[in-house]
Amino acid sequence: AASNPINTLFDVKRIIGQKIHDGGVSLDVKRFPYTVAPGPDDKPMIEVDYKEKKQQFPPEQISAMVLSYMKETAEVFLGRPVTRAVITVPAYFNDSQRQATKDAGAIAGL
């Protein structure tokens, strides 16, 4: 992480389900070492070098990647497919953030 801070993503959940110009998002984005740019419908898009290409991902996709990794780890441990999971969100999340988290779970196959 310390050797590649621009591609080390963290706190993505802080901007999931929000618009790039929302007050809290613009403050969070300023402290991230990685680039967050406006995307379609004012959605924040996270820019990273992924598979040797500069790509943009919405926060839901990044969360889905994390959930997919956790799903695969659970499947190896359990020895069977995992299709359902309980994904918690902070109490302060609004409906848009909750829905975006559900969308990330669906993308991950949960």
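(the above was protein one; protein two follows)
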Amino acid sequence: MASHHPHHGYTCITCNVVFAEAELQRAHHKTDWHRYNLKRKVAELPPVTAEGFRERVLTQREAQAAGGEDKQPRLCKICRKQFVSLRSYENHLGSKRHRENEKTAKPPDVEVEADLSELRNKKNLQLSTKQVKEVESGDKKDKEEEEEEEEASVEEKKG
């Protein structure tokens, strides 16, 4: 990620910048700008310059101050991802990965039913033999108690 070139200094290939000292390079790796470019790199997007990053931060702050940024979290049911802003959600909808997932997505009804079945299966698997026996014996006790209550009720009506 970072290297030293004797004639050029210390570089960050993620952000395409060169530093004269190693300490500056290490400090750079802790910045929001560098982290932002790392995320862009993972998304196969080109890095933004320091000035471009500052402009984006200012634009975002202005939008938040004006109430323009929608704070409602968005959920992509197809990719099963949550997004904190409308802009990130819209960017996701236009992404290559989302479009690929859309093509292979199951119809909503089938997907919901599959999710429910999966949850039921997991829950059932989590029950140990001991728990199953406890549940079964508890059911028997409940039935016995109900029968006793019915008998008592019948006896009261007779008497």
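Reviewer note on protein two: The longest strand covers residues 2-5.
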